[in-house]
Amino acid sequence: MSHHDRPTPEFAAAVPQPDGTPERLRRQIEFVVEVDQLKNVLRQSPLLAADRRENDAEHSWHLALMVLVLAEYADEPVDVVRVLAMVVLHDLVEIYAGDTPLYDSAAGADQEERERLAADRLFAILPDDQRDRFRALWDEFEERTSAEARFAKAMDRLQPLLLNYGNRGGTWRTPGVTEAEVLARKSVIGDASAELWDYARTLIRTGADRGWVPRADPGA
Amino acid sequence: MSHHDRPTPEFAAAVPQPDGTPERLRRQIEFVVEVDQLKNVLRQSPLLAADRRENDAEHSWHLALMVLVLAEYADEPVDVVRVLAMVVLHDLVEIYAGDTPLYDSAAGADQEERERLAADRLFAILPDDQRDRFRALWDEFEERTSAEARFAKAMDRLQPLLLNYGNRGGTWRTPGVTEAEVLARKSVIGDASAELWDYARTLIRTGADRGWVPRADPGA
Ligand SMILES: [Ca+2]
Fold first, then answer.
1. Pick from A58, A81, A88: CB nearest B65
2. Which among A39, A85, B121, B156 has the fewest CB atoms less than 10 Å away?
3. Which region ranges are annotated with the description Disordered (chains A, B) (predicted)?
């Protein structure tokens, strides 16, 4: 198997790996180095614990923690290691494609294409077998074609809800966002867990009761 | 089972969960909210991708990613889901106990006791069964009593090595640190994987060759 057609990615190339590093390990380490950039991709949501926006690496860690705590609420049996792998990997494409805010429909339009190209580029750093395995996990997550993917996606939708609720609004205060739109964007939680969707709806309704998310668009 | 003796932790109590949230779920969500503070615990290591120090949440995510990429190098078979759980949980105690830098022997002296008390307090937020399961995983990681724990610890030691190497020094430049001390502190990698320990030693030796870590303490 030749890897000569796939050069070291630009970021990881800044400090080359030592001579004599076995080829397979070199590619794997270059991937591990390249993805350090996920810590630099900022999301819209402010943290609970500090007055700054969350980054994708922190967010992905929080989802993994949530999987460990909340997996028992999955309506269908899930293989936890696959759910964990999906949440750890799910945002890596944003290193090249950037974060697309949930409530930004314009940016959402070409998001799929941008992220697909980013996935081609990023996962190609890995040895072929891992490239294919990671890409398949990411595709599965995006397409929600398994119980694991549905549960991983539910965590991805529930976590910012917890941040918004704990921040008494957060990105719920984005102009134009309404309770109905939040409910619509979050309804995929119900495809994974009736109990967590019940809880999520209670959070959103309580937020609306308290004026943290508008019942209707005041500009409409 | 009564939970009335265990109140909502202070941080999570700032915005109480909605009335009617089932008791078990309420405790789990309070834990998920409480641990948002891990994003605020700063480590010594600077990131590769930005000119700032890494936080524990980002670090924990990076370890999880490394487990997915590098598990094949474990010398003994490992149950990947248990390794992932350990790296996701391993630094949570630092929310209450703070980060203890690897090259700070004074802070290291009472570290064990402080972290044990922090674990008592933090994991008690969870329902009893999860409290016991998470605590057992953390104890196992700390004591390195299984192949999973040894591999998780190896990732925890290898990751900052990658950051230091990529930063042409990083915390290797802490006064008093020498190549021999770095080798000693990192040798646990060899308990998990001969191949990764071989690679780690090459990184350290290359760092010393290039003057990123002193061969001997210039003050000695
Ligand atoms: Ca630590």
1. A88
2. B121
3. 1-21
Chain B CA closest to residue A61: B61
B200 belongs to a structural domain: yes
Q: What is the ipTM of this complex?
A: 0.94
Q: How many angstroms separate the alpha carbon of residue B112 from the centre of ligand 1?
A: 11
> pLDDT tens digit string along B40-76?
999 999 999 889 999 999 999 999 999 999 999 999 9
What is the residue whose two structure tokens read 């997550």?
A141
Chain B CB contacts of A68 under 8 Å are 85, 88-89, 134
CA–CA gap between residue B171 and residue B59 (Å, rounded): 15
Average pLDDT, chain B: 93
Q: How far apart are CA A209 and CA A169, in angstroms?
A: 12
Contact between B65 and A32 using a beta-carbon 8 Å cutoff: yes
Which CATH number is B201's domain given? 1.10.3210.10
Q: HSE on the CB side for B145, CA within 13 Å?
A: 7
Is residue A127 assigned to a domain? Answer: yes
Structural domain for B58, as ranges: 21-209
Model confidence pLDDT, tens digit, residues B124-151? 999 999 999 999 999 999 999 999 999 9
Strand ranges (E), chain A:
42-46, 53-55
